[in-house]
Amino acid sequence: MRPSLPLILWAALPLVASPAFSTTTLVDSQGFEGPLNNLGPLAGQVASTQDGSGTAVWQESGGGQAVIQDAVVAPGGGDQAARIDRLAGTDGYWGVFEPVTSGSAVVFVEWDMRVEAATGPAGSFGPLFGVSIFNQEESLSLLGSLTVDSTTLEVLSQATGTGFLTPTGLTVAPGAWNHFRIEVDLGTDQYRLFVNDAPTGPAIGFVDGPAAGFTDASLTAAAGAGDPASLALTGTAYFDNFQIMVVPEPTSPALMIFGGLLASGRRSRKDGPAGPPRD
Questions:
Q1: What is the distance between the alpha carbons of residues 54 and 230, in angstroms, rounded to a whole number?
Q2: What is the pLDDT of residues 204-256, one digit of tens each?
Q3: What value, to the nearest 5°, has the Cα angle with vertex 224 and ends 3 and 206?
Q4: Closest CA to 80 of 221, 239, 273
Q5: What are phi and psi of 70, to 5 degrees?
Q6: At a CB cut-off of 8 Å and minimum separation 6, what does 35 contact?
Q7: Considering the entire predicted model, what is its pTM?
Q8: What is the C-alpha separation between 266 and 279, in angstroms, rounded?
């Protein structure tokens, strides 16, 4: 049984000022493809922002290793993807800052991910790979996360108020690509998780309570529990087709239509341009 321990978050990425959103697509990795990205470390490379009108730099916090490589890629075209390795005793986060300050906006974060199976001593968990959602406008606030435990292959959320890792009841196959999405509703202070476009369950309240905005969705490599064996576990996952989109002033019909478009019209990688420890 998984112990009731919160996901440990290392120091926040330094907040970089950004203009308020004016379009639908905030961040687009464009499949980590060239010429926008080159093979090598992810930190310092750029992502397309503001519907292709700008770029922003990937930033790194904590430890671990994230590189753009061409040996393992998602199906559907393209030659590159990001590989993230969790190293023993350290958690890592990689994000691009494009703040959303509208209190009624809904933010959509989606990505493809392949988690390689990890094996640890009996009773150990992790490492975890996925995406964590933050607001850092005034102070660091964790809104929620979607991660996969590479030992148990469970899909996990985080509980309101405590941050405890909570199994959704779903698992994924090791070494297989799956599509993931987090919908962040700033109007209701809740988030929902989707795996291969199917909801994992009902909406979940933000981990640290109501938030006035959103700043970043960080690729995450973290320990699965706080015991020494889990903290020492290493693991690997691959990420592709990472995007952040926003509906600034949503209505229920608009959200239904937009969610349907995400499921049916997802861009392929060949389309081209258009935390601190918790107690």
A1: 40
A2: 999 999 998 999 999 999 999 999 999 999 999 999 999 999 988 655 444 44
A3: 80
A4: 239
A5: -125, 15
A6: none
A7: 0.85
A8: 38
